[in-house]
Amino acid sequence: MFTQRSGPGYVDATASVRGLMMLAVLVLCTAGCHKAPTLPAAGETEVTVMQVTQRDTPVDFEFTAQTQSSREVEIRARVDGFLDKRVYTEGQMVHTGQTLFLMDPKPFEATLQTAKGQLAQQQARLYITKANLARVIPLAKQNALSQKDLDDATGNEKEAESAVIAAQGQVRTAELNLSYTTIKSPLNGLSSFAHQQDGSYVTASASGLLTYVYQLDPMWVNFSISENELLRYRAQVDKKQLVFPANNDFEVSVVLADGSLFPSTGHINFTNPAFNTQTGTFLVRASLANPTGSLRPGQFVKARVSGAIRPNAILVPQRAVLQGAKSHFVWVVDSDSKAHERVVETGEWHGDDWFITEGLKPGERVVVDGAIRVVADTPLKITGAPSPASQPAAANVPQSAPQNEPVHLAAQQSDQTVSK
């Protein structure tokens, strides 16, 4: 028997039990007001399907590349002397024949004057020898002078002629050296900073570098391809899985760092005949017009190579391809709307799609949306075709490529093992 107590610090046990019972009843009533969710039947999985088709698919390949001036010229001093003045604005466009630097001309003017004086002396000597020979010839015919006298006069005249030619060469050399004190740009291009300041003594050796001038139009774009990639391209061409354009005339466009497309396109104009032994890559160079000079040397860009085609290619959306224990597979829908697992061999990505090289035939239906919920040999509820954005792309879509590998004769996406 319980003894009921009252007063501060004590709680009525009967009241507590009654309160707990009322709370439990309230919870049960609340739960009864809501219906439990009904799980869909296993055979009512809603999916969208697409029909497999084959078509020739143009493909683009993107490679990390770097721009290079098509003509990078070192502006050097050609004579030794003091640099008087830089007369161009560093970093500005310069034109062919524009003066860039002026050297102190005074020593070269003095040398030229000396050379001209020596030339005048030799010309005077030649005049005398010619006049002497003119007098000796008739006297020798009259036997008034010996044959030796005639030979000596003739030799002196020839020697004086040679001395004049040598003196003329000295004058020409002095004139050239004087002209080299005015240093001009040999081309239209972008100037670099000055490597020597006014008043510096420069020589025609290594210290004679004054600046650079970079030709901007056309601009070169360099990228590389690995040996493995090149061999893979050749194998795909042999298997008719990849077709290159006639004469390997690929079109190259440039994607800038902000993702915008450079307006001009170009073509591959050089492929190195040898692999780089240090990197194992094969250098490829494209040339494209850069009339406004917006592309600058040294920029990191993406080279997009177009012109290759994958004939009779099969494309399916990436979400339709599932990863099994050992391989990739898709769900193929039969005439009874039942799904069957089909192992496929995947190729490269093409935008949001995947090339399927083995495992599918034209006309078959493949589950796209809802593939992850499909159960084998279970009827499906087909709600329609995938949205247009999910359909295999018909236009060129860039394929990923190794970050440090470009293309020769075309390009193919690099190993997709990680992506797959």
Automatic annotation (TrEMBL):
<dbReference type="InterPro" id="IPR058624">
    <property type="entry name" value="MdtA-like_HH"/>
</dbReference>
<dbReference type="GO" id="GO:0022857">
    <property type="term" value="F:transmembrane transporter activity"/>
</dbReference>
<dbReference type="Pfam" id="PF25876">
    <property type="entry name" value="HH_MFP_RND"/>
</dbReference>
<feature type="compositionally biased region" description="Polar residues">
    <location>
        <begin position="411"/>
        <end position="420"/>
    </location>
</feature>
<dbReference type="InterPro" id="IPR006143">
    <property type="entry name" value="RND_pump_MFP"/>
</dbReference>
<feature type="compositionally biased region" description="Low complexity">
    <location>
        <begin position="385"/>
        <end position="404"/>
    </location>
</feature>
<feature type="domain" description="Multidrug resistance protein MdtA-like barrel-sandwich hybrid">
    <location>
        <begin position="71"/>
        <end position="206"/>
    </location>
</feature>
<feature type="domain" description="Multidrug resistance protein MdtA-like alpha-helical hairpin">
    <location>
        <begin position="111"/>
        <end position="181"/>
    </location>
</feature>
<dbReference type="InterPro" id="IPR058625">
    <property type="entry name" value="MdtA-like_BSH"/>
</dbReference>
<dbReference type="GO" id="GO:0046677">
    <property type="term" value="P:response to antibiotic"/>
</dbReference>
<dbReference type="InterPro" id="IPR058627">
    <property type="entry name" value="MdtA-like_C"/>
</dbReference>
<feature type="region of interest" description="Disordered">
    <location>
        <begin position="382"/>
        <end position="420"/>
    </location>
</feature>
<dbReference type="Pfam" id="PF25917">
    <property type="entry name" value="BSH_RND"/>
</dbReference>
<comment type="similarity">
    <text>Belongs to the membrane fusion protein (MFP) (TC 8.A.1) family.</text>
</comment>
<dbReference type="GO" id="GO:0005886">
    <property type="term" value="C:plasma membrane"/>
</dbReference>
<dbReference type="Pfam" id="PF25967">
    <property type="entry name" value="RND-MFP_C"/>
</dbReference>
<dbReference type="Pfam" id="PF25944">
    <property type="entry name" value="Beta-barrel_RND"/>
</dbReference>
<dbReference type="InterPro" id="IPR058626">
    <property type="entry name" value="MdtA-like_b-barrel"/>
</dbReference>
<feature type="domain" description="Multidrug resistance protein MdtA-like beta-barrel">
    <location>
        <begin position="218"/>
        <end position="306"/>
    </location>
</feature>
<protein>
    <submittedName>
        <fullName>Efflux RND transporter periplasmic adaptor subunit</fullName>
    </submittedName>
</protein>
<feature type="domain" description="Multidrug resistance protein MdtA-like C-terminal permuted SH3">
    <location>
        <begin position="312"/>
        <end position="371"/>
    </location>
</feature>
